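Researcher: Re-running this chain for the archive, since the previous output was lost when a drive failed. Same request as before.
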Amino acid sequence: MEFLLVSLLNGISYGLLLFMLTSGLTIVFSLMGVLNFAHASFYMLGAYFAYQASTWLGFWPALVIAPLAVGAVGMAVERFGLRTVHRYGHVAELLFTFGLAYLIEEAVHLIWGRSSLDYRIPPDLDGTLFSVYGSAYPVFRGFMMLVAVAMLVSIWLTLTRTRIGLVIQAALTHPQAVEALGHNVPRVFMLVFGGGAALAGLAGVIGGAAFVTEPGMAATVGSIVFVIVVVGGMGSLAGAFVASLAIGIIQTFSVALDYSMLDLLGRLGIAPAPGTLAQDVAKLTIAQAAPVIPYLLMVLMLIFRPKGLMGTRAD
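Model: Regenerated structure tokens:
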């Protein structure tokens, strides 16, 4: 029971971190139709900006400054790069953001080097929140969950209950009418893209302290982000939330399970011939196969439900 509860809590906290990272990409795609391959790089920038700001001002100011700085970078990218590329279609956008990811990584190498940084959990959040059967649950993981839930509620309220949310949604479907009402549609899209980047930066502030801040962190989570977007449904924020929790829980449990198909076959009295490929495959444990499981889930989703859990097919 202890293993079950602790793994479930860790899976939920990891899933909520994935949602913090994925939500910005989902919003940008749903409102602008842009699939940003550099989104995970904004996550990395958030961690590095937070590290730099925390060395000067402390963690709490960095929690505000870093996402705003990443959002400003995102707005500059949209204004001076993506807006020009947009007229050439989605392929040009993909190539642009793909190249941007490499540029951001090289910039990080030049400024902060290639080694990991000593970006740690702040002392205020470095403790035990509660105990589960004697196992201490960290305060920082509880803080991570709180920030993710607060962000989800804020996004939902902004898009559905505020004037700016209505303008953003109207600008997507009826841009000429929105311009006729006096709103600057290109500026709206710039703010949306910057907001998506800021959300990734916020995830970087949290994730960089919880895990490791190093130049490869964008590549580590970048592929998982697109798995979540596909599984949850392209452009569906609710689908991204469900898929993030599901993949977070699945990965957390799978890395801790040291069982293999060979164990199950042995209990059933069935054993593959020694030295064969079947035996080698059966020897693989769930923990060894854990990194592949999200991608297997994505392939199955594309085969049996291409629109994802909560996505809709384009007409």
